[in-house]
Amino acid sequence: LASSNSGQYQQSPVPRGGAILKDEYWQLWKHEKFPNFEFIIASLDTAMTAKEENDASALTIWGLFRDEAKNPKLMLMWAWQGRFEFNALVQKVMDACGGNPKAAPNFPVDKLLIESKANGQSVGQELHRLLRGSGKFGIELINPTKYGDKWARVNAVQHLFADEMIHAPDK
After folding, report:
1. In angstroms, rounded to a whole number, what is the distance separating the alpha carbons of residues 39 and 63?
2. Can you give the pTM of this predicted structure?
């Protein structure tokens, strides 16, 4: 109800239960520990500046694992969004993706995908400069519009959610 009221207030109503990705599609992981992941990937969408009127930067970290029947599953392990100046954004991404062993949380990301719009190219270049030769994680700039608009991209993965392949921590 709260999300419906807030959506109405913001002039972007969301149907109760979700739109394309229904609430019930998410599989909640109720165990204390994450499963053993075969591959961990992070996705970064950067904002141009830290100003309040701009969109926030956002990072999601996903782990690929297999269930008892060896079926592939994905887990949303971590996510954040916020408005940061350039250097703080680079540091926050490095910390979350395992580039800073003293940081928490610190996920051992294998690959970081960065949307090549806004500040994305600069953030990718700076991360590459700071981590070069460390073997911490690969960095790839991507152009998501190459795969259609946002609606087309979410529709392309909707079946993964509906088929109970996508998990998220229950906490």
Report:
1. 6
2. 0.82
